[in-house]
Design brief:
Layout (H helix, E strand, L loop, with lengths): L3 H11 L12 H16 L10 E6 L5 H12 L3 E5 L13 H9 L4 E6 L4 H8 L4 E6 L5 H15 L6 E5 L6 H9 L6 E5 L8 H9 L3 E5 L4 H4 L4 E4 L10 H7 L18 E3 L20 H19 L4 H5 L7
Parallel strand pairs: 1-2, 1-3, 3-4, 5-6, 5-8, 6-7, 8-9
Length: about 325
């Protein structure tokens, strides 16, 4: 039986690694994780985590994030436990988040958690004796998605520096775009916020841009002229689940739809990203366009999340490149 009190003392002394917010990551740390992801893309199948247990606690629905974390753990030799629906847990009996986290910490070496309440991951990281990875908390942040976005941008552009990035759609509730703004503060981007006024970028993130010297412009028009200046076109869906008023959702859900003819003047290097799932915001005809990259982007999530899991468990890059457990 693991002694949680002792583990609290040990982790306090050693400095437990968590992955809760992208705002905590330095430029060097981001580039380090990208370098690790590159190594895992070369050799994704290993047993470097043999004997480890990864718990995936998803209090909110997910497909790509959950499956890519679980695949990452499995491909690295770890075992996976957890749940995909809070309705089948003791939360329905009134168990608190704190007690759930402490209980699961008895069984796992790291916890990957998605929760519908903003700040839940930060709270979990403060009470857990094992590392916490934030797999999305409400409309707040989605730092692991941000790492795969950064890896995708780096792979397609060869750099993260001095890029023009269009963020399109739900900028009010879109936690992926909020995380991306924070991460890109190190790399001198120019952002174009393209959204209807009902879904405009919140003032707190515009203030963050100003405080960190991040250039941005706001637009309500979405057309080929705006797209023509972009290195990255980052589309988002309008998130029905974030609306309390469904009439408001119906009003804005199809405001911006990307079509092939809108890409006629796009830069050769421009790539279209999307955190997925999509609804109507990208027409299926765009899928075969050479600018489309959102399917490959999702695949990059495997390598980025392998890098994240290893990092929070204290596995160094030297250990990764010298790993003798590579399979295939």
């Amino acid at each position: 039986m693991r002694n949680l009190a002792v583990e609290f003392e040990i982790t306090a002394l050693m400095g437990k690694h968590n992955f809760v917010t992208i705002a905590d990551l330095s430029k060097e740390k981001i580039l380090y994780l990208i370098k690790s992801a590159q190594e895992f893309e070369k050799h994704p199948n290993r047993e470097i985590l043999k004997g480890k247990v990864v718990a995936t606690l998803f209090f909110e629905p997910s497909t790509r994030t959950r499956l890519s974390f679980e695949t990452a753990a499995n491909r690295l030799g770890a075992r996976v436990i957890g749940f995909t629906d809070a309705k089948v847990t003791s939360a329905t009996k009134g168990e608190t988040l704190k007690d759930t986290i402490l209980m699961v910490s008895n069984y796992a070496d790291v916890i990957v958690m998605r929760h519908y309440i903003e700040g839940a991951a930060q709270y979990a990281s403060e009470v857990a004796p094992v590392p916490i990875i934030n797999a999305g908390d409400g409309a707040h942040q989605h730092p692991s998605q941000c790492m795969l976005d950064l890896y995708s941008i780096y792979k397609t552009q060869g750099t993260l520096e001095n890029l023009d990035i269009c963020l399109v759609g739900d900028l009010k509730y879109g936690r992926t775009v909020h995380s991306l703004i924070m991460a890109m503060r190190h790399f001198n981007p120019t952002f174009h916020f393209i959204a209807p006024k009902e879904l405009a970028m919140p003032d707190e993130y515009k203030l963050y841009c100003k405080e960190n010297g991040i250039k941005f412009k706001e637009h309500t028009e979405f057309n080929d002229e705006t797209i023509s200046k972009a290195d990255i076109l980052y589309m988002t869906r309008v998130q029905k689940e974030r609306f309390s008023d469904l009439m408001e959702y119906e009003k804005v859900k199809n405001v911006y739809i990307l079509k092939n003819d809108m890409l006629k003047n796009a830069r050769k290097n421009m790539k279209i990203l999307h955190p997925l799932p999509r609804v109507n915001e990208i027409e299926y005809e765009v899928d075969t366009n050479p600018h489309a990259y959102y399917i490959q982007q999702a695949q990059n999530g495997l390598y980025a999340r392998e890098a994240i899991i290893c990092d929070v468990l204290g596995i160094s890059f030297d250990e990764i490149i010298n790993d003798k457990t590579i399979i295939g």
